[in-house]
Amino acid sequence: MKRIIFNKIKNKKDNNNKGKTICVSAVAPKLGCTFISLAIANFIGSCLRENVIFIELKEESSLLGMVGENQISIGRSIGYKYKGVKYILTNSVEEAIELLASERGYVIVDLGVLGNNTAAVFNICENKIIIGSFMPWQRRDFHEFIRKNIFKRFDMETIKFCQLGRNKEAQQLFYESYRCRLNNLPKIDNPFSLKEENFEDIINLL
């Protein structure tokens, strides 16, 4: 089973020496953007044993207390290493763009809520993920976010839209509205301790 799953991700990699750049954003705070970003990074670092850098692009870091003990240099940046993943905690768009352009292997960007100041980072990443919720009280925010931040700026087909939960009705409504698939997020208990049952769902986000 593991060999089959690992072959699937290997087959999706580019043939050149540069790996994937993946940006994870959310419609609003507290929708699991950091959680999913960490799961992707730890899957690549621990399960696939590939070189991976995690960029937390936010004004205030939520990860420093956890990952900030083992300080290292990454290019011209100061970062940290924790459980096989290298972390850059920064609020600098310029620093993130430089790392995306220069580092080999995988670079995962936890963008938080996409805004005008971070759109350039989102745009240059090969894989773009946006998380939202189709719960009745959050559905309007999802539509407003797409209207204001995605239409006329990005190709909808280049983005993987994901929902909290597994609402089949929401998936149908989303497709009818945008002709794009609405993906389900993997069910993960701990992004630092992944289970084999999580692997394929994570691969589908890559």
Name the beta content range.
25-35%
Helix content: 25-40%
The value of Rg in angstroms is: 16 Å
Segments where pLDDT lies below 50 for 5+ residues?
none
The CATH superfamily label reads: P-loop containing nucleotide triphosphate hydrolases
Structural class of the helices, strands and pairings?
Answer: alpha/beta
Order of helices and strands: HEHEHEEEHEHEHEHEH
CATH classification class = Alpha Beta
Strands side by side in the biggest sheet = 3-4-5-2-6-1-7-8-9
Number of domains: 1
Q: How would you describe the shape?
A: globular
Please count the beta strands (DSSP E, at least 2 residues each): 9
- CATH topology: the name is Rossmann fold
* Average pLDDT: 88
How does this structure look, described?
- 37% of the residues lie in helices and 26% in strands.
- With 206 residues, it is α/β, with parallel strands linked by helices.
- The protein has a single domain (22-205), classed as P-loop containing nucleotide triphosphate hydrolases (Rossmann fold, 3-Layer(aba) Sandwich), CATH 3.40.50.
- It has helices at residues 2-12, 33-47, 64-67, 93-102, 119-124, 139-150, 168-178, 196-203; strands at residues 18-26, 52-57, 71-74, 77-82, 85-90, 105-113, 127-132, 159-163, 182-184.
- It is globular.
- The chain has 8 helices and 9 strands.
- A hairpin with a 2-residue loop joins strand 4 and strand 5.
- Helix 1 (2-12) packs parallel to helix 8 (196-203).
- A 9-stranded mixed sheet has the order 3-4-5-2-6-1-7-8-9, with helices on both faces.
